[in-house]
Amino acid sequence: MARTKDAGSSPKPAKEPGRMKQMWQVFQMTRRYDSSAQWLMLLGFLLPVVVGLGLALWLSGGNGFTIALWIIAGVLAGLLIALVILGRRAERAAYSQIDGQPGAVGAVLKSGLRGSWTGNEMPVAVNGKTQDAVYRAVGRGGVVLISEGPRSRTDRMLTDEKRKVERVLPNVPVSTISVGHEEGSVELHRLAATLRKTKRSLTKPEVLAVTNRLNSLQAPLPIPKGIDPMRVRPQRGRMR
After folding, report:
1. Do 135 and 109 touch, CB atoms closer than 8 A?
2. How would you label 160-190 residue by residue, b for 16+ Cβ within 10 Å and e otherwise?
3. What secondary structure, in 3-state letters, does 37-100 show?
4. pLDDT tens digits, residue range 181-206?
5. What CA–CA distance (Å, rounded) separates 37 from 147?
6. 101, 131 contact by CB (below 8 A)
7. Which parts of 127-207 are beta strand (E)?
8. Do β-strands 142-148 and 118-119 pair in parallel, antiparallel, or remain unpaired?
9. Of 18, 70, 119, 199, whose CB is crowded by the most CB atoms within 10 A?
10. What angle do CA 101, 102, 105 make, to 5 degrees?
């Protein structure tokens, strides 16, 4: 019997969706959670086109080539603005899906920070019963402690962590942020922007030094005492 060409061949990996398909998927997800996103994108696209058309009729002097250039410039500007609106609305829609869940602040600190700000998705303090947590971010604005959970339960945690940091870094500004929907709290999708607005007081080398100092003082996870797994030898069977 003749062998088939597919015999013994491994299945081909599925192709990743193209850029246009990915953008369409992002648009569909954003529109599902934010119905106003599509209208804002449309407005952001049409406004530069109208402005470009008006400038073409006003400044071209009847030159068809100049009119075409102004219209093309308006279309390109409109596409750029629409994509910027889509990106920001998509980010907000993504955060709305995890808002209120344990670890949401850590997800923002891991993927949503820009510039000199750095954060860890793992909390520096956590309440095992209520799952309330305190996270830490370091940047040009100093050290910022961020709580996740109701303020009635996390204010004490923030105070304790702030006291620890100030004891180790007495000359570094330490501020606190409570994430939530209560009065005085910051909503999850505004956390990254709030950090960027913090008044700068450290240089980039100082930010690195503060980060290394805090990481070196971070207590490791407790390891149960007992047999060292690196020194365990396999037991040999007894001779009978």
Report:
1. yes
2. ebbebbeeebeebebbbbbbbeeeebbebbb
3. HHHHHHHHHHHHHHHHHHHHHHHCCCCHHHHHHHHHHHHHHHHHHHHHHHHHHHHHHHHHHHCC
4. 888 888 888 888 888 888 888 888 88
5. 30
6. no
7. 133-139, 142-148, 174-179
8. unpaired
9. 119
10. 90
**Cα→Cα distances 131→11, 105, 147, 191, Å:** 43, 12, 11, 20
Are residues 32 and 90 in contact, defined by beta-carbon separation less than 8 angstroms? no
Looking up tokens 């899906």, which residue turns up?
97
Q: Which residues contact 218 (CB under 8 A, 6 or more apart)?
A: 124
Tokens encoding 136: 């830490």
Q: How far apart are CA 75 and CA 48, in angstroms?
A: 7
Residue range 84-112, pLDDT digits in tens: 988 888 877 777 777 778 888 888 888 77
